């Protein structure tokens, strides 16, 4: 396996966390620990989500635009196949909302107590 740059590692952690939030909100049971490449973060993912995350990791490693890769949102290549691309967008939108909501609750909690 090739050496990870800090940037790749950071991106994989972000997508991993989003996938984990999605998984805990949609799937129940069968979750196993999955270590993010780089080894600093462990996620709890069901087999489907673990497979999706492995796909994302593999795509990130084979990105043809390294090292001047723009963020994936602006990327002209769109290396994900349509089903995975649809899934990642769904995960990012849903988990993003969940995280914002949670952030606000934390804020309220501190403010009120
Ligand atoms: Zn899942």
Descriptive overview:
By secondary structure, the protein is mostly helical. The protein has one domain (6-112). It is built from 3 helices and 2 strands; from the N terminus they run αββαα. It has helices at residues 6-26, 47-61, 82-112; strands spanning 32-35, 42-45. The chain has a two-stranded antiparallel sheet with strand order 1-2. Helix 1 (6-26) crosses helix 3. It is globular and about 40 Å long. 19% of the residues are buried. The chain binds zinc ion. Zinc ion is lined by residues 23, 27, 45-46, 48-49. Zinc ion binds next to helix 2.
List the helices and strands and how they pair.
Layout: H1 6-26, E1 32-35, E2 42-45, H2 47-61, H3 82-112
Antiparallel strand pairs: 1-2
Bound molecules: zinc ion (ZN).
Residues 23, 27, 45-46, 48-49 line the site of zinc ion.
List the secondary-structure elements in sequence, H or E. HEEHH
Count of distinct strands: 2
Main sheet properties? 2 strands, antiparallel
Tell me the span between the first and last alpha carbons: 49 Å
Q: What low-confidence regions span 5 or more consecutive residues with pLDDT below 50?
A: none
Strand order of the largest sheet: 1-2
Counting DSSP H or I runs of 4 or more residues, the number of helices is 3
Shape: globular
In percent, how helical is the residue content? 55-70%
Calculate Rg over CA atoms.
Answer: 15 Å
* Secondary-structure class: mainly alpha
pLDDT averaged over residues: 82
Task: List bound small molecules.
Answer: zinc ion
Number of domains: 1
Strand content: 5-15%
